[in-house]
Amino acid sequence: xxYVTDFTDYELIDAAGGExxxxxGDIILRRPDPQVIWEGDKENRxxxxxxxxxxxxxxxxxxxxxxxxxxxxxxxxxxxLCFRLKPMGFKHTGLFPEQAVNWTLLSDVIKKxxxxxxxxxxxxxxxxxxxxxxxxxxxxxxxxxxxxxxxxAKENAAASGLQDLPVRWLVDDCLKFIRREIRRQNNYDIxxxxxxxxxxxxxxxxxxxxxxxxxxxxxxxEILSPEAKxxxxxxxxxxxxxxxxxxxxxxxxxxGRGGTVFTDEIGLKITYKELVLPCGSTTVWKAPHVE
Length: 291
Description:
Helix 1 (100-112) packs parallel to helix 2 (128-136) and helix 5 (209-221) packs parallel to helix 6. 26% of the residues lie in helices and 33% in strands. The protein has 6 helices and 17 strands. The protein is α/β, with parallel strands linked by helices. An 8-stranded mixed sheet has the order 1-16-17-15-12-9-10-11. Strands 2-3-4-5-6 form a 5-stranded mixed sheet, with no helix packed on it. It has a two-stranded antiparallel ribbon with strand order 7-8. The longest helix has 16 residues, at 242-257. The chain has 2 domains: 2-85, Golgi alpha-mannosidase II (Immunoglobulin-like); 97-286, Rossmann fold (3-Layer(aba) Sandwich).
């Protein structure tokens, strides 16, 4: 498992009884996590010092209970990158900190390249990977179906001082966008994707991970450039085997291109218990000439 070791503005303090206890900068939050199925204890005094707690509803969704003053928006740093946060309706804050391990991988490949690279970020959410790629020197196309998420990503880029770098911000259905790129014969050196378990496009298009993944990967293989460096696929869908993700990626990308494919869990270290909480998996294809 790969896990973050250098994200000083974020800390997974503890996890027990179905909940995470987290520090986001100076703000401490409690929120549910389906992976935390152990009971354990909640002896750490910070369990009772959280700024806000997220309560699930029996009918779906839930709500934040503010126990102390929480800013409408606040920011945290990861190295030179800056991310704006806020409590969202479905327990999230606008950032998945475990993805920092992939931002580092992405940045390393871009910085070691002997030529400028074009990056495509699909299902790009609030732009963590987009900001990392821009900072490393790539030109980025950022695609997400949510206008609000694309605007949030723009704000993250601006907060990091990257707003004037080469980036296209697109509100679009990812599959429709890829099909148009195939017709336009546009391709990319690096493709990142973070498809949700379930979602809707801007035109009401329905996406289900298990039904759409094969088509998504097949179409993506047609816009990965002949000199491509990297493909990175994140999976948060419960029940989707990392082995299956690895197999599909090898079949579609390695057979004709060579290179290597690896799949692993990514996670967050629980500082109070010195354990690591699994937070999904990532499948990576690297071209033969990429370290």
